[in-house]
Design a protein that fits this description.
Blueprint (H helix, E strand, L loop, with lengths): L3 E8 L5 E6 L11 E3 L2 E5 L3 E8 L2 E6 L14 E5 L6 E7 L2 E8 L6 E5 L9 E6 L2 E7 L4 E5 L5 E6 L6 E2 L8 E3 L7 E6 L5 E5 H14 L13 H6 L1
Parallel strand pairs: 1-17, 8-10
Antiparallel strand pairs: 1-5, 2-4, 2-14, 3-12, 3-15, 6-7, 6-11, 8-9, 10-13, 11-12, 14-16, 17-18
């Protein structure tokens, strides 16, 4: 069974918006690969949201038309894959219907999509997902292979997002990286009242809350906005 990772988002800002978790494409042979809003949910001030995932891959495609930031990638097919025995697939158009076919083994450690000659240009997009949601996409084109070599990495931001939309990672404002320390699988990302981020293991956030509650019965879980506390927890 795959390890479950958990991220708890706490909104201690004054803003109503949507939290977005995305991944950045690693060095890859895939040209013009784009990141998708992997997870996204609305969050009001003083609320918290949890996200859970496993590192389980899939092939995905969507009839997007031209692929660009802001375009919604709504997967029409999610085909489970691994990095050894089911990591290569053909993308084809059978009588006007797109589909994946001929799934089997490919280059170990990578996920390969073979696009055959039936694929029209600028009509669809293909990519890979993780834990059932799309992570990366690229414009589909005829007679062209795409090889993705995934290396999971996690970023969080807050603003206006829809899950599955193409995001411009270079234009993101105020993102924070979520790094899971060794043998830690639950992290907390807090958007503070001054719109800065505090990212720490959930166990540390719980310990801080218990100490704060002992001093003040009205202490809120995840409120690390008091000067000096954030720096102390980060050490």
């Amino acid at each position: 069974m795959s390890q479950v990772y958990t991220l708890t988002f706490v909104n201690h800002s004054a803003n109503l918006g949507s939290v977005c978790i995305y991944q950045k494409a690693p060095d890859t042979s895939v040209h013009d690969v784009m990141s998708l809003a992997w997870f996204s949910k609305e969050a009001a001030p003083s609320t918290q949201i949890s996200f859970d995932w496993t590192i389980d891959y899939s092939f995905i495609w969507s009839q997007t038309g031209a692929l660009a930031p802001g375009v919604l990638f709504s997967a029409s097919q999610v085909l489970p894959a691994d990095l050894t025995s089911t990591n290569k697939v053909t993308f084809t158009n059978e009588n006007g219907a797109y589909t994946f076919t001929n799934q089997g083994p490919g280059t170990p450690g990578s996920l390969t999509i073979v696009q055959d000659g039936t694929i029209p240009a600028m009509q669809a997009a293909v990519g890979i997902g993780m834990s059932g949601n799309g992570a990366f996409a690229v414009q589909a084109q005829p007679n062209f292979n795409e090889m993705f070599t995934p290396h999971p990495n996690y970023w969080i931001t807050f603003g206006t997002f829809t899950q599955g939309e193409v995001v411009d990672v270079e234009s993101m404002t105020n993102p924070a990286e979520i790094t899971f320390p060794e043998n830690i699988y639950a992290m907390t990302a807090i958007l503070n009242s001054d719109n800065t981020w505090t990212v720490l293991p959930t166990g540390q956030a719980n310990a801080h809350f218990l100490k704060a509650r002992a001093r003040n019965p009205l202490a809120r879980w995840g409120d690390l906005s008091t000067p000096g506390k954030v720096a102390a927890l980060a050490r």
